[in-house]
Design a protein that fits this description.
258 residues, alpha/beta, TIM Barrel, 8-stranded parallel beta barrel
Length: 258
C-alpha cells in the first residue's frame, strides 16, 4: 500500500478536491455539472463527482437517487433511460445532466478526478463494471471510490482484467451508520462498515472520511500503520480545513475558496 500522502499514487493528495466540482448555484453553476468541473479545473483543484446508472445502464453524473432537488422533474433517476435524462435541465441552470464520458472529455486529464459510485448496497455490480470499462480508456489521473465495499471489492478482484490496474480504489466512510440515511442497511452490513472489516477484500488505496468524525481510530490506523492516505469530506471553512488537516492528508471542500 502507498505511503500516506505519497508513493505510487502521490497525486491523490496533491490537490484540494472540489466536492461535486466548484459549484455555485447563485452563479448558475450546479453541482456535478460540466461548468462546475471546468471551474474546478481552471482553479487547479481536483474534482469529486457522483455517478449512478440510468435505466439502460449509462453512467451519469448525479448525486441524488431522486430528481426533485436537482431538476424540475420528479421520480427516480434510475427509472429513466439516458435519452430521457439527457432532456433534463439542472435546476437554476441551462445545463443538462452529464454522462461520465462527458465529464472525462471535459476534464481531459488536466486535474485528478475522484469518482464516487453510488450504491443501494443490493449486490448489483453492473455500475462498477461500467465505470471500469469507461475509465480504462481514460489517460488522466482518476480514482474510484464508494461507501459500499462490494463494488470496490469487485474491481479489486478483477483489477488487471478490467483494464484499471493503474487506478486507485478507495472507501468513503464515517464513524457511525446508525442514522436514518442508513436505515436500509442490514445489521451485517452496518457492522462491516462500522468495524471496517471489509479491508481484506477491498484493500483500499485511500480512505475518504467524514470530517465531523475526526479524529478517529480508523483513519489514524490507515495513515500511520497502513500507509494509506486519507482525504476528508465535506470541509466548509478555512478553520475547519486547518483543524482537519491535523488528521487527514487532503480536504474535499465546498462553499469557500481554500
Amino acid at each position: 500500500m502507498p505511503q500516506s500522502g505519497g508513493g505510487r499514487y502521490h497525486w491523490l493528495t496533491e490537490h484540494k478536491i472540489a466536492h461535486r466540482g466548484l459549484h455555485d448555484l447563485a452563479k448558475g453553476v450546479a453541482e456535478n455539472s460540466l461548468s462546475a468541473a471546468r471551474a474546478a479545473a481552471c482553479a487547479g483543484y481536483a474534482i469529486e463527482c457522483d455517478v449512478q446508472a440510468s435505466a439502460d445502464g449509462e453512467v451519469v453524473v448525479f448525486h441524488d437517487e431522486t430528481l426533485e432537488r436537482l431538476t424540475d422533474a420528479t421520480g427516480r433517476l434510475d427509472a429513466l433511460s439516458h435519452f430521457e435524462i439527457a432532456r433534463l435541465t439542472l435546476r437554476g441552470t441551462r445545463e443538462g445532466v452529464p454522462t461520465l464520458r462527458d465529464l472525462l472529455a471535459t476534464i481531459g486529464g488536466n486535474v485528478p478526478l475522484f469518482i464516487e459510485i453510488k450504491s443501494l448496497f443490493d449486490g448489483d455490480l453492473a455500475l462498477a463494471r461500467n465505470v471500469a470499462d469507461i475509465v480504462a480508456h481514460y489517460r488522466g489521473a482518476v480514482a474510484i471510490e464508494s461507501f459500499d465495499p462490494a463494488p470496490i471489492a469487485e474491481l479489486r478482484a478483477h483489477f488487471d482484467r478490467s483494464g484499471i490496474s493503474g487506478v486507485p480504489l478507495g472507501i468513503v466512510a464515517e464513524a457511525s451508520f446508525e442514522g436514518p440515511d442508513w436505515s436500509f442497511l442490514t445489521a451485517a452490513q452496518r457492522d462491516e462498515l462500522t468495524q471496517f472489516s471489509h479491508v481484506a477484500r477491498t484493500r483500499p488505496d485511500f480512505l475518504s472520511w467524514n470530517v465531523a468524525d475526526l479524529p478517529h481510530a480508523i483513519p489514524r490506523r490507515c495513515r500511520e500503520e497502513l500507509g494509506v492516505p486519507v482525504t476528508t469530506w465535506t470541509v466548509r471553512s478555512a478553520e475547519q480545513a486547518k483543524a482537519a488537516l491535523a488528521f487527514a492528508d487532503q480536504i474535499v471542500f465546498e462553499g469557500f475558496a481554500p
